[in-house]
Amino acid sequence: MIHITFCYETDLDLTYMKNEITKCFEQRGVCVSACCCHNAAELLKRSSSQLPDILFYDLNGEQGLMRKAAIAVKKKQQNMVSVVFAQKDTTAAMEDILLEPLFAVPNKSRKQLWTYASLAYEAAMKDEDTFTYYRRPSYIKTAVQDIQYFVSEGRRTHIVSADGCNTFYKKLDEVETLMQNKNCQFLRIHKSYLVNASYIAGYSRNSIKLTNGEHLRISKYAYYKNIVELIRSSSVS
User: What global pTM score does this model have?
Assistant: First the structure.
């Protein structure tokens, strides 16, 4: 069960957002508890009994009061993920860093909403020991210690683990960001490869050798330097 709160001043926005987001998660097999609020005061009151895992709201609503309320809720629920709409004429406030992770949706189209709802869910389900990704018709969790590497191919990313290979839609840069807070260290060795350092058995200037005997190419000297520094620091410790 994931708890989602929607906070918008108009019933039209509230109904639209709730219907689209709950439909998105229902189709992905995720149980959702939804709460709707019209203003900052209502958001604070509702959050006293049930803190949200994901908060969809108008960042600049009520002349900034919704932002302040969101920050207050975030202090109580540190893992809360914020989802707002990006406006070209809006200047980010300094305190927005307190709301991270914060996703800004470009527009209200179903495609954008569902994409960012999925990103928010994956961030909200953050677990140091597992990696969560969506592969139709549901989400899959994989232990990070079992992941050997990720390889991108266009808009798709393949995850290679002890259980074999699966494919999901996400940019490798986004995957790299998600893996930064895991219990295993992942290294970028190529624009298309993100490797679990635990599976590196050897390396040269141009490639690494994995514990399964597979070789993957290193594309930049900067990537090679990172590998050398990691191996040296590991051997010293």
Answer: 0.69
Q: Give the Cα separation of 59 and 56 in Å (integer).
A: 9
Structure tokens at 170: 């996400």
Using an 8 Å Cβ cutoff, are 28 and 138 in contact? Answer: yes
**62: phi > 0 → left, psi -120 to 50 → alpha, else beta; which?**
left
SS (H, E, C) 6-17: EECCCHHHHHHH
Alpha carbon distances (Å) from 6 to 13, 146, 165: 9, 36, 37
pLDDT (tens digit, 9 = 90+) per residue, 53-99? 999 999 989 999 999 999 999 999 998 999 998 765 556 678 889 99
- pLDDT category, 235, cuts 50, 70, 90? low
The single residue listed with the structure tokens 């200047």 is 91
